[in-house]
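Action item from last week, closing it out:
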Amino acid sequence: MTEVKKTTIRPNVAGMTKTAGGSYHKPDFIGQTLAGLSVAQVLVIAVAVGLSADKYKHLNPGQQRMTLGNQLRKMTNILEVPEVDGKPDQKVCDKNEEIAALRDKITDMAKEALEANEDEKVAKLEAKKAAKAAAAKAKAEAPKAEANEAAEV
């Protein structure tokens, strides 16, 4: 019997940006704009700009996010404007204006989602601090309560 060798496939991350979570993304418009967003947030943005996310539900969350990011990337690529009779092609210029508007919409939605993420982090930290303060207060008051109970007996 021949021995099967395992193969490790490593992505080419030379031109990519590493996130705080340890993953990588392309340093283009979509990669930078969607960095830090969850799969659910990317799904919301994708559906808002007209993509159908239903056909990717069978994929795992990472594949869904990657595929939707690639679809958004296709939608937001600025086209090179050819010249027709020495003038820029107006149809392509009009299409680029539509793409710019779409980019603005995606940027605004991503900023809102990132702000919501930041607000959630702050709320969690404040709740954690409050719980810690309440525990410290209860611990500090425990000996007093025991002393009061002993004095009553």
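Closing note: Strands lie at 17-18, 24-25, 83-84, 87-88.
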